[in-house]
């Protein structure tokens, strides 16, 4: 993984709250002999914070 960057935006639409996660990442792989695999997969976990931690 060469670069990974995430931004989180919070919006309110009427009574609903919307959370938008924008992930930008890039991966490269090189080899002189054989096969190379560059994975660009992302795993995101969103956890609600308790009121005490705010």
Keywords for this entry:
2 strands; 54 residues; single chain; two-stranded antiparallel sheet; elongated; mainly beta
Mind sketching the topology for me?
Blueprint: E1 3-13, E2 16-26
Sum up the overall morphology in one term.
Answer: elongated
Decide which structural class fits the backbone: mainly beta
Helix share, percent: under 10%
User: Count the strands?
Assistant: 2
Q: How would you characterize the largest beta sheet? A: 2 strands, antiparallel
Mean pLDDT: 82
Strand portion: 35-45%
Identify the strand order in the major beta sheet. Answer: 1-2
Radius of gyration, in angstroms, nearest whole number: 18 Å
Order of helices and strands: EE
Task: Please report the distance between the alpha carbons of the first and last residues.
Answer: 32 Å
Total helices: the number is 0
Low-confidence stretches: none
């Amino acid at each position: 993984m060469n670069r990974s960057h995430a931004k989180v935006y919070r919006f309110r639409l009427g009574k609903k709250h919307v959370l938008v996660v924008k992930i930008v990442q890039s991966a490269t792989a090189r080899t002189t002999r054989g096969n190379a695999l560059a994975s660009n997969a992302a795993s995101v976990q969103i956890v609600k914070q308790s009121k005490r931690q705010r």
